[in-house]
Predict the 3D structure of the following.
Amino acid sequence: MRGDRFDVVVVGASLAGCTAATLYARQGLSVALVESHRDPAHYKRACTHFIQSTAWPVIRRLGMAEAIMEAGGRPNRLSIWTRWGWLEFPGGVDAPVDGDQRAADEGAADTGVNIRRSALDPMLRAHTGAEPNVTMLMGQRVSDVVVRAGRVVGVRASGGGREQEFFGRLVVGADGRTSKVAECAGQPSVTKPHGRFVYFAPFTGVGLPDEASRMWLLEPDVAYAFPNGEVTILSVMPTADRLAEFRKDLRGNYLEHLRRLPHGPDLSAAEQVGELSGVLNYICVSRRPAAPGLALIGDAAMTSDYMWGTGCSFAFQSAAWLVDATASALLRAGDVDPGLRRYAARHRQVLAGHHRLMSDYADGRGFNPMERLLYAAAVRDPRVARHVVEFGERRMSVRKFLSPNMVMRSLLVNRPQSAVAA
């Protein structure tokens, strides 16, 4: 069995894996990018196609911003319907990403973007494959990790009728929520079943008031319309207890659900241009982001409820955090583990609270009392609205979101005939 040696071995050539491979390679490090699919045009189908503005500094750093917009990307301004009315997300704020001074220095006040994964994934993969220090290994399915003295030092993969080992001073698992790398390395996971199912399909000719994405929080059902140029992804997310009844007339119930949405999309001229797809139990998963010689990024580290559209952004961000924490040690052939601990700490600090809250809502419940308080006030008061928007864009911690000052303001705003000073 032949063993090839690299500075970094990245498993998974999707958003997180390609980002990490590109950024490591530009530091002068040799990178093996190991991908199980043979086709470079492969893309993830079960996705909101929604990238929040918090990822845009990383996209600019990759040199992909202009290409994404030229490939059909659209600014993803978002409007959310609740029983109290519409809440507008402008798609970019003037505040830095919570705890991320580097993003602030680079200018974090950017719009997010909607772009179909059928365009994004192959484009990003080709962009990464053009890096001289990246060896792209398509059609290589990882079967195990190589561990020596309690440390992950490589992976074992098979493809083209033979098995190979790829060694690196750092192994990065970017292979999704069912990560084989994490499983073989014995990384413990915390899982939570999803209390909703989702069906979605692409349409042309959807009538929306503007270019904004739209989400309906119907308590407990959810729906969204995400425009991607001429194509709009329409999705419905009923609670899991209704799945059997829903599937008796799948297309009919799907369309009826869309037609019943308050101020919903106009479907009179709409034409479905792709299959109606479903995801029936998208389990929420979290794992420790690092171990000796090993890091997990993107969905391999944390898979949250898809309805909030955070997965793409977290993939870009976590990959950049990992590179920033470990590249210097790799370049000087030093000990990478302190950098891995810094990465894991940052991952937990910025994302863990959001994941817990999203996973809790994923059980299919309606709003809890605190959510009712803040959402109701946000529709009535611009300051609370700004606060909720920044949290929804994952620019602040859960603790800051639930700050006593904002809770008190929301209580005052929600009083009958309230007039709170801006």
User: Anything to note?
Assistant: The chain is about 35% helix and 25% strand. Residues 92-109 have pLDDT under 50 and may be disordered.
